[in-house]
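Colleagues,

For the teaching module next term, I've prepared a clean inverse folding example: a structure given as tokens, and then the sequence designed for it. I'd like students to try predicting residues themselves before seeing the answer, so please don't circulate the second half yet.
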């Protein structure tokens, strides 16, 4: 799987992309940067492809103090110029970052048994 997204973040913004399998919490991740309004990374998953099931794609920007000088000048020394519903406080108190997540299904929905089973106790 390859991940691609369009963004209005400044050119050169450092981001981390993750793909997380919900059933097992197995995750693949990579670091990349915004180029011409786009973010792309991959391939993710085993060479044989991802097993069917639900996954999440997560995009998180690096804190402002580790962004390139041009990006830091636009977003502020602590990310204070970032605005919108995707703005979140950094986990380590390093200012504001962007966090986005999207859930999706690969293949068929995970099958669940609907059998009616009666349990009887032996005498």
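(Answer key — instructors only)
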């Amino acid at each position: 799987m390859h991940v691609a997204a369009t963004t209005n973040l400044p050119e050169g913004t450092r981001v981390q992309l993750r793909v997380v399998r919900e059933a097992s919490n197995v995750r693949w991740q990579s670091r990349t940067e915004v180029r011409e309004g786009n973010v792309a990374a991959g391939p993710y998953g085993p060479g044989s492809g991802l097993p069917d099931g639900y996954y999440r794609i997560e995009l998180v920007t690096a804190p402002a103090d580790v962004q390139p000088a041009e990006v830091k000048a636009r977003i502020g020394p602590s990310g204070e110029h970032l605005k919108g519903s995707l703005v979140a406080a950094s986990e380590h108190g390093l200012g504001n970052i962007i966090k986005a997540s999207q859930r999706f299904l690969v293949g068929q929905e995970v099958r669940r048994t609907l059998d009616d089973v009666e349990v009887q106790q032996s005498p």
